[in-house]
Amino acid sequence: MALVSMKDMLQKALEEQYAVGQFNLNNLEFTQAILQAAQEEKAPVILGVSEPYIPYMGGLPCIVGMVNALIEHYGITVPVALHLDHGTTYEVCVRAIHAGFTSVMIDASHHTLEANIEVTQRVTQMAHVLGATVEAELGRITGREDDLVVDEAEGMYAVPEDCVKLVYETGIDCLAPALGSVHGPYRGQPKLGFDRMGEIQRLTGLPLVLHGGSGLPESEIRQAIALGTSKINVNTDNQSACTAAIRSYLQEHPEAYDPRNYLIPAREAIKASVKAKIRLFGSDGKAGGHAQ
């Protein structure tokens, strides 16, 4: 099945109150595991590629080629979107779409609201002409590189009025408002702004995106979905599962040298992690008539 835009899958998720998982690609094994997990769970899926991973994985054409080849090789029939995660410039978004990505995130959240709107509007106009979906971010979603604890993230919540302005002046398809989630492992108890989340969704009418979906309590995931979160990003949990499987294998088999010996268990661990998230998000069995 050819890659699809994520707009329709997110709208369906919003209407039926589940979330589609975005699982980030780190290498070949991650791509294999995520596609296989989605197919086995009959779930739509979003493959995320963060900007720093583009050169690591051989460039945009290489990534698109690998994804398309694996979809054909495994006979994948569920809807699959290929998404640029945290694109920092108009130019990288253009290059991603021309390479074959079906969705982009323009992250201008570190700019002023006016500057964020300006670049997001340019990206959206270009992407929609080319049939791609656009995600934007407002507020600041923290991470390990910021050296901030979870309590400090609460002070960076997106402002509902700013979200409305961004949405209506840019025409984006989905919104990632900063509401207390964190990239990477959480240090402390997460504090998601559920009241503000519900208000932003009501005011904008758009599917919301939750970044930093690893490590959140299941009850908070379910509450976020009930409030209009239709896309949840996961990477750290899958990376941790992969690394733990490799460590375990090499501890038991220190003589091993063939990468397949430890990468196959790693791939299976990633797949199990992805399948668990798909079920938690409620997207299993939601591929409609596409999955066979």
Task: Give a written overview of the molecule.
- Its cofactor is Zn(2+).
- InterPro entries: Aldolase_TIM, Class_II_FBP_aldolase, FBA_II, Fruc_bis_ald_class-2.
- Pfam families: F_bP_aldolase.
- The chain is α/β, with parallel strands linked by helices and 292 residues long.
- The chain has a single domain, classed as Aldolase class I (TIM Barrel, Alpha-Beta Barrel), CATH 3.20.20.
- An eight-stranded parallel beta sheet has the order 7-5-4-3-2-1-10-9. A two-stranded parallel ribbon has the order 6-8.
- About 5% of the residues have low confidence.
Provide the descriptors you would attach to this structure in a database record.
292 residues, alpha/beta, TIM Barrel, 8-stranded parallel β-sheet, two-stranded parallel ribbon, 12 helices, 10 strands
For the biggest β-sheet, the strand order reads 7-5-4-3-2-1-10-9
Tell me the strand percentage band: 15-25%
Task: Please write the CATH class name.
Answer: Alpha Beta
Counting DSSP H or I runs of 4 or more residues, the number of helices is 12
Instruction: Flag low-confidence runs.
Output: 143-151, 183-187
Radius of gyration: 18 Å
Counting structural domains, the number is 1
Q: Note the overall shape.
A: globular
Specify the structural class.
alpha/beta
Work out the number of β strands.
10
CATH H-level homologous superfamily name: Aldolase class I
Main sheet summary: 8 strands, parallel
Average predicted local confidence, pLDDT: 91
Give me the CATH architecture, please. Answer: Alpha-Beta Barrel
Topology as H/E string?
HEHEHHEHEHEEHHEEHEHEHH
**The CATH topology, please?**
TIM Barrel
Estimated helix fraction: 40-55%
What gap, in angstroms, lies between the N and C termini?
A: 11 Å
